[in-house]
# Entry
Amino acid sequence: MAENIEEKEEEYNNGEYIGQFQDNKRQGKGTYSWKSKSEYKGEFYEDKIDGRGIYTWPNGEKYEGDFKEGKKEGKGIYYYPSGSKYDGSFKDNKREGKGIFYFKSGNRYEGDFKNDKREGSGVMYYKNGDREMGDYFNDKKVGKHIIMYQDGKYEMIDYDVKENKDKKENNDNENNNIQNEDKKENNDNEDNKKENNDNEEDDNIQNKENLENNIEKENNKENNA
# Structure
């Protein structure tokens, strides 16, 4: 099979590809550069982005890690232009499984993710040395959490108890950061989606371009920390 691989350059309506082909399909290592200034550099299989690679956007966002049939799948790191980043598992283009979200403030969350949101058990590490352990559902804190302060003291908060409603609302503001970042990313990438519609013969690359709309955004806890 290796003898069938050739290096060449191919132009498309929305950009160009430079790299390896096999049986007239993008296969092996290559670079696809969009007219929108986005770029993917890495592995291809059967004309699709598949394997390890680095995808960069003109607004400064970057993903480096595993892809499967044009989607983020496996282990990877997603960098936000704000300075935040996510390092962990992806499934079907979303954060899923174990991961770490580093906020630009210096705080970080380590724990479970589901459907792009914090869900399951996790720990928030605050830059002042405090840490908070507990469960999350749909990106919000639920149930009993234990806060360990840097001076050795601790506090238990039950976010399901009505008297803690105000505390819960304050913490929910933090939980909106990741989602707000997503909305911003979707707006930044409208032009790139337009580029994809120009190229009917290259649907696989277009589908990858549409991945720019899937990462949720970080939240306001950084402003409150």
Notes: The domain at 2-224 is CATH 2.60.450.20 (lipopolysaccharide transport protein A fold). The helical segments are 165-188, 190-197, 203-209, 221-224. The longest strand covers residues 25-34.
